[in-house]
Every structure is written in C-alpha cells, then in structure tokens.
Amino acid sequence: MLGKGASSSMNMADGSAEDMPLKNNFTMLVVDDDPIICKVHDMQFKKFGLKPQVVENGKKAVDLCLAGGTFNLILMDKEMFVMDGVEATTELRAMGVNSLIAGVTSGDSPYKVTI
C-alpha cells in the first residue's frame, strides 16, 4: 500500500511495462512443485502482461525443451521430486539450452547466511 502522495509506476524508454511482452515476445518457464509458489509467480508476472508456462519438476522442464520449447527465462526451484533443479539445469546446459536460468527455493537451507 502506498502512502499519501506516493505513487509507483514502471516507465520504459520505448513504452509501458504492459507493452513489453508484445514487443519482445518474452517467454518464460516456471519449474516448481509447489502450486502456491507457482500461483505467486503467475500473479507477479501477469502485472507485466507475461504468462509463464509452468511445470512441476525438472524432468518435465527437460522434456519440454527436448520437444523444442525455448524460453528467455527459466525460474527453477532447487528442491523438487522426480528431478531437482540442479540436475535439471545440468541436463539443460548439456543439451545446449542457453536460457537464463534463475535458481529459486522457498525451503530451508543448511547454508543460510546470518547477518
């Protein structure tokens, strides 16, 4: 919620955020086994007019790319059943997939940094 007199907007040099996917044909894949996290991603990206494709594990992401799917961005959960994000990313890179792959997780990690 914005305070009195505050505003928020995203201006792009050649248009608005809503125009971005139409001009760039930006494609994205969300790989996550948690339906709530998938819904959150979906809601956030819809603000920019994006509709990500969603699969629930790394194996399905690999199969999708093997079938010819190409994406500008892949959000890859680290911890999933069937095939986790690290294994899927390794396979995708070995296949020559050069999409930007961003690793995400909502789980606890033994490697937490405490400040």
TrEMBL record:
GO terms for biological process: phosphorelay signal transduction system. The modification 4-aspartylphosphate is found at D77. PROSITE patterns: RESPONSE_REGULATORY. Pfam families: Response_reg. Keywords: Phosphoprotein. Residues 27-115 form the Response regulatory domain. It comes from the Eukaryota. This is Response regulatory domain-containing protein. The lineage of its organism: Eukaryota, Viridiplantae, Streptophyta, Embryophyta, Tracheophyta.
